[in-house]
Amino acid sequence: xxxxxxxxxxxxxxxxxxxxxxxxxxxxxxxxxxxxxxxxxxxxxxxxxxxxxxxxxxxxxxxxxxxxxxxxxxxxxxxxxxxxxxxxxxxxxxxxxxxxxxxxxxxxxxxxxxxxxxxxxxxxxxxxxxxxxxxxxxxxxxxxxxxxxxxxxxxxxxxxxxxxxxxxxxxxxxxxx
Length: 177
Description:
This protein is of the alpha+beta class. It has two helices and seven strands. The protein has a seven-stranded antiparallel β-sheet with strand order 1-2-3-4-5-6-7. The longest helix is centred in the first third of the chain and has 43 residues, at 2-44. The radius of gyration is 20 Å and the shape is globular. It starts with a helix and ends with a helix.
């Protein structure tokens, strides 16, 4: 009985370690794609001829918050789609800056070429001034959360961040067509 318990504990530990290794590999891959996206953005911003970005500015009075400004920027690629017989634009990186009253917030969403959301970075001023800023990083693979890093108060859950990225992607499709 003691041997069986020892074997079960060993197998459980090995399974957890393998899962951690797979998560680390996925996170490393996502970080590489993030670095590539940032390079593409820098390259695209060097010339008007290569710029593929769309910025949406929203300014309104929000109930219980007051004046709110939101800037959403989409960075995208445009490729010819043989099946559609037309050029299709797909976002690969989305940023948002906005305020909630006097507090400032910033978000980034990284998408793979097929449109899957693979990373979200969220930061902002905490409601509690003694806490300062908070940050959240979410990493997904095949629509499943594989890793998260949280510092300070959590701004949104991973599910909320994932849903936000999907809504932003849908808005892009609507605005571009």
